[in-house]
Design a protein that fits this description.
Elements lengths: L20 H4 L12 H6 L2 H8 L3 H16 L6 E2 L8 E7 L6 H4 L2 H8 L4 E5 L12 H6 L9 E4 L10 H8 L15 H9 L8 H8 L16 E5 L2 E6 L9 H13 L4 E5 L4 E2 L2 E2 L10 H6 L5 E6 L5 E7 L5 E7 L28 E3 L2 H16 L10 H12 L15 H11 L23 E8 L4 E8 L3 H5 L2 E10 L5 E5 L8
Parallel strand pairs: 1-5, 2-3, 3-4, 6-7, 7-10, 10-12
Antiparallel strand pairs: 2-14, 5-6, 8-9, 11-12, 11-13, 14-15, 15-16, 16-17
């Protein structure tokens, strides 16, 4: 395997001479462009809930009522297929489903370093832009046709834009033709919401059959008891929560989560559609009628050792030390296929001290590599490819270290040797000397050419150790053959039974 990018600039994929087989495998040259109006219009429910209220909680309740009426009440919502195992290996794919090169470039690396995992979990936004069962063949089943184990999932906001019909049919076994629950709201806002709401196309049995044809083996089938559930994964328990469109839980799910966390008799890893910490900011995830998910995972009665969330399309690592001495690892892991979310807006993580510090933080891509990447896209779109707005990775490494006050993660250009042009170009991307580039602009700079800067996680657990690896997918052939291990963090129990995390990645101590 290759060393992480903070040891070698070449391992980011800059200067890639031979694109990988994953990019070549994209069916029919498919590409999801967020610059086109159709994907944005199909995703309009996101804006509607911000203006007119969110019916997601009521719709989720109705979905579960239907499931329970068909199969009988299931208060535990537990998958016990892997119970009793002494060890477990899990592939975690965050926000994968664009169905183009940014997703397919991950597949060869996944097959090489995680093709032997017992199961996989899609962490948020299974398919883009707006759910729908018809998308599952091209954006879930076909890309991962060769993964031998079952693939479970938790919905992201984009999966709710069809009323969750595609997700419920594929993962939970509801009939493909079943319509989404009706919006029960009253008043003028609910009236406008129903008038403008996108109702995804109903699925058909043929859509489901077309998707299953890519993953026909019985061992590949996964059936879960709802959009939120727990998986008994031998030495650990995985708890999957559904944060809907706006990043919140309904009352019933909150009660189920509390009971699941407090009753767990082993280390628990919470998987969530939206991270609780991202861009060095807390997002506690409110629960209907009071409380937050952050409060539950920190409660000493819970056995949570890690929280992993999608939604932001990159990798971020925050080992959090609580006042009582416990540690909870918070990861952002949404980089498995959607457009890249910039990491250069991440401030110095010392703002979270003493719970977490910059020294313990990691991200992929590195902030400087993110700046270099987005400068290329800025130049292509706004400077007609003249090269006048491009910042080299070496220059960007130094500029970002100066900007946020950190030690450069790898050797960059000496400050005195950075040209005024490069500094001006960096400020354009960064948003000015006092500004901070808006992450929403990431969608404008999407690309299907190396370096792709994608990533996914592999989780391995026994009673004695939990290891999480972040593997990079650059889109380059050499990194398909010898993948880049970008980050590794390991937890082991102490004499008091508490789990402690330690970095085990080669390279410098600073991110």
């Amino acid at each position: 395997m290759h060393d992480p990018s903070r040891l070698d600039e070449a391992n980011t994929g800059y200067g890639c001479e031979h694109p990988g087989t994953g990019i070549a495998a994209v069916p029919g040259g498919a590409r999801l462009s967020w610059l086109r109006p159709a994907p944005l219009w199909r995703s309009r429910n996101d804006r509607l809930v911000r203006l007119l209220g969110d019916p997601t909680d009521d719709m989720r309740r109705e979905w579960l009522r239907r499931l329970d009426a068909e199969r009988g009440p299931d208060p535990a919502r537990l998958v016990d297929r892997f119970a009793g195992r002494d060890s477990i290996a899990v592939a975690l794919l965050g926000d994968p489903g664009e169905g183009d090169a940014s997703q397919y470039c991950v597949v060869p690396v996944l097959q090489r370093v995680a093709g032997d995992t017992d199961l996989a979990v899609v962490v948020s936004d299974v398919v883009y832009p707006a759910g729908g069962l018809r998308e599952y063949a091209a954006k879930l089943a076909r890309p991962y046709a060769d993964h031998p184990g079952p693939i479970y999932g938790l919905p992201g906001n984009h999966d709710w834009y069809d009323g969750l019909t595609g997700f419920m049919s594929w993962f939970c076994g509801t009939p493909p033709e079943e319509a989404a629950p009706a919006d029960p709201g009253t008043g003028w806002k609910a009236f406008l919401r129903r008038l403008l709401w996108r109702r995804g196309p109903r699925g058909r049995t043929s859509d489901l059959e077309a998707a299953r044809a890519w993953r026909p083996a019985e061992a590949q089938r996964a059936l879960q008891p709802g959009p939120y559930c727990a998986i008994d994964a031998g030495p650990v328990r995985l708890v999957l929560i559904d944060t809907g469109i706006r990043g919140a839980l309904d009352r019933e799910q909150g009660e189920w989560l509390r009971d699941s966390l407090f009753a767990a008799d082993r280390p628990t890893i919470v998987l969530t559609g939206k991270p609780l910490i991202t861009y060095a900011e807390h997002h506690p995830c409110p629960i209907e009628d009071g409380g937050t998910v952050a409060e539950l995972v920190r409660d000493p009665r819970a056995s949570v050792v890690a929280v992993i969330g999608g939604d932001d399309h990159n990798y971020q690592r925050y080992p959090v030390r609580l006042a009582d001495g416990r540690e909870i690892l918070h990861l952002v892991a949404g980089g498995s296929g959607a457009y890249l979310s910039a990491t250069h807006p991440i401030p110095n993580v010392d703002v979270l001290a003493p719970e977490c510090t910059e020294e313990d933080f990691r991200c992929y891509p590195l902030r400087g590599d993110s700046l270099a990447h987005f400068s290329r896209r800025y130049d292509a779109l706004r400077r007609f490819g003249t090269g006048t707005a491009v910042v080299s990775p070496a220059d960007a490494t130094t500029i970002m270290a100066e900007r946020i006050g950190i030690a450069p993660p790898r050797t960059g250009t000496p400050p005195a040797e950075i040209s005024p042009r490069a500094r001006r170009a960096a400020e354009r991307v960064l948003g000015g000397p006092k500004g901070r580039s808006e992450n929403w602009t990431s969608v404008l700079y999407d690309t299907d050419r190396p370096p792709m800067l994608k990533s996914f996680l592999r989780l391995d657990a026994t009673a004695a150790e939990i290891r999480i690896d972040c593997w990079a997918a650059t889109g380059c052939l050499e990194h398909e053959r010898d993948p880049v291990l970008e980050d590794r963090i390991v937890a082991r129990p102490g004499a008091d039974g508490r789990w402690t995390w330690a970095s085990a990645t080669p390279g410098r101590a600073h991110p």
